Amino acid sequence: MTEKKVIVIGAGLAGSEAAWQVANSGIPVKLVEMRPTKSTPAHHTGEFGELVCSNSFGALSPDRAAGLLQKELRIFKSLIVQTADKFAVPAGGALAVDRSKFSIALTDALSNHPLIEIKRFEQLDLPNKENITILATGPLTADELFYKIQAFTGIDACHFFDAASPIIYGDTIDQEIVFKASRYDKGDPAYLNCPMNKNHYIHFRNELIQGEQANLKDFEKESANFFEACLPIEEIARRGVDTMRYGPLKSIGLWNPKWGDLFDRENRLKMRPHAVVQLRKEDLEGKLLNMVGFQTNLKWSEQKRIFRLIPGLAKAEFVRFGVMHRNTFLESPKLLLPTLQFMKRENLFAAGQITGTEGYAAAAAGGLLAGINASLLAKGKKPLCFPDQSMIGSLMNFISNKNQILSNQKKNKFQPMPASFGLVPELTKRIKDKRLRYKAYQERSTEALNDFKNKLDSCFDKDHLLSKIY
Boundaries of CATH 3.50.50.60 in the chain? Predict the structure, then answer.
């Protein structure tokens, strides 16, 4: 049987991973990306895999759901995670990257692959039915293509509003006020912390909730459906006087040695700040800093005025202001199989945030699975499902029709989901201790994926140079 070329639409995290997996199985790929010919409300470059929100992939440790997902992706030599590891910047217990070097490296790797053909244009329709195609256009899918996807599925799009945090120049902060520390002293002091006393905090909150908002294109603000994991900081502030203090501005676990002895309880209670704003490095040198948890829909002039009220940021200069944009996703449980194939068309796959997964590693996982299965289909073989016991398999089950079968999602509104231990099947024997339970999840996942890897190996030929995925 003649192997077919696979078309991948979109060169974000999912599309980049999918194209890499297909090409490394020895099958030619046409990778279509509309940027920079046409941009989106959130992107700033034409590089592949550009990170438009945070530069963090989440916790590194495999006893956290995000960390286990990263570990699983490393087993399959994920291009996205390997590149993130290469360009990691200090971030305490999280995997954060130098976003510019990360996306440039992805672009170079894909552009130089002998089996990947790059096409820069806006895809206006679904490719014809003869083509094996992976839709990885993300939550910012251009309107014309998404109208065609709607017509194909017969289901209206779902959407929510997402926001990105501002980035400031590192040499414009006041080093006399800002201090380095990681929460509970975990790892190196990877964050810069701006302490607030109660008066600072109350004044800052009042200005936040009264600040002038930017207009949301195409939607009235009152109808905005915010994604809870990326709420604008002003929306968090509106939920209560202390809501920010128990969220992104919590001060617990952060201590400046200049304040004296951390273990002196009386001194600790006296000196602990009322709230703390954290800054995380965008690059290894710390020339650029991300305002952690400060997604916002404030007008740019208001961001400059209000965020400069934060102690240590009075003279801050902004590289990029925060922005808000509409994210669109499919009602995937009604449309997709756990293999990420559309039920209506077996050679059409979807991957990444358009399917309703949330987070960078989850997008890479979707690209990995879609790429593997598109390769198998091109070779005339049956697509596979990742094991239920793995985080990848559990995520794919959640966004697919298996979700419908398992939990009768017809009665519930489908919403995007990040990696979570709540998605994986229960252990045969219940373990009360959370740390031991999460360790057991890891061990079970590793065992299941090793078996799956062996099964997958047997599906690919060993007689040509680029046949091995691993």
Answer: 6-162+327-457
Q: What is the CATH number of domain 6-162+327-457?
A: 3.50.50.60
CATH code 2.40.30 region(s) in the chain: 167-322
Fold category of 167-322 in CATH? Elongation Factor Tu (Ef-tu); domain 3 (2.40.30)
DSSP 177-234: T-EEE-GGG-SS--EEEEEE-HHHHHHHHHHHHHSPBPPPTTS-GGG--B-GGG--HH
CA distance readout (Å), 274 to 79, 200, 208, 303 = 42, 9, 17, 22
pLDDT at 393: 96
Residues of the chain with pLDDT under 50: 1-2, 218-223, 406-411, 463-470
* Radius of gyration from C-alpha coordinates of the chain: 23
Single-letter amino acid, residue 110: L
Closest among 368, 326, 332, 372 to 226, alpha carbons compared = 326
Q: Is the backbone peptide bond immediately before 36 cis, with ω within 30 degrees of 0?
A: yes
Which residue in this structure is represented by tokens 């070097």? 101
DSSP-assigned letter for residue 244: G
pTM: 0.76
Burial of 118 (0-12, 13-18, 19+ CB in 10 A): middle
